[in-house]
Amino acid sequence: MKRFVILLFLGAGFVGLRAGELLRLEQSLEAMGSVYTVVAYGEQRAGMLAAVDDAFEEVRRIDRLLSNYRPDSELSQLNRAAAKGPVRVSDELFGLLEVCREYSRQSQGTFDITVGPLMKIWGFYRGSGRLPHRAEIRGVFGRVGFDKVVLNSAGKTVSFARDGMELDPGGIGKGYAVDRMVDILKKGLVHSALVSAGNSSIFALGSPPEEEGWRVSIRDPRDAARAMEEVVLKNASMSTSGTSEKFFRAQGRLYSHIMNPRTGYPAQGTLSVSVIAPRTLDSEAWTKPVFIMGRKWTEKHLPNNPHFKGYRFFICEDKQGGSQQPCAWLQ
Fold first, then answer.
1. Of 162, 211, 283, 318, whose CB count within 10 A is highest?
2. What is the pLDDT at residue 5?
């Protein structure tokens, strides 16, 4: 089950405004299991179309690099071979894995793209979820943990310490693709743009005409028709992860797709997290540790860290007992 947690204020089509004003272009593409949308402003129709087409072609290329649904992707080939010995990978993929290792280190292991085996037994791979037996969870738990991924920077090789390990790019793929699209649009004849992946990871390049930035709303995780907050983004990203994206109910409890790699179970206690950051790769990645660890851990570890300058965190907790403010910005 999928519900959008970010509302984008968009129109449709290619619109030519009055003389001297900017043209507006909106186009979408289905790729990597999501819908990618670009809303762009510029002066030259042909140049804008070319830039947007190039951005969408970049998404297709990244799909061939990172998709774990495509058996011929570089990541899928790595997953099949890395337990047998070191696998030489492209500089691009190796660089991404190094970034993931740093996310894992900074988040005390709660960001972890090795959760592939857990996602499968919980039914979130090509499915909406199922409740596995505890023995199933114990059986795959030893295959999870970024400490079991060996990165050799000298030879750009990757190997797994255990059989049955599998990398899952779900925590970074959309964010990485959006950032690459924005880089391409910047080089084209695009003055400003809003780039969205699945309406949950976005980047606002510049601002639309006569506006201070792009207006984006964070939706109520319990009621997708209601906006919780409106933010104005300019040259910044925002990503949201929540229980409403993919979940199932079993034995009176809700289980979401956001997996806690330290327990082997879906994270509990949080409904949704929105992160504003300079890059979409970062905003998407950090929604998961904040969701898993919660408000108190985030308050203690992230705001005063120089690495997180320019970040903002909006957290909706799963509070019981009629709490008056379950959703709020981290102060």
1. 283
2. 38
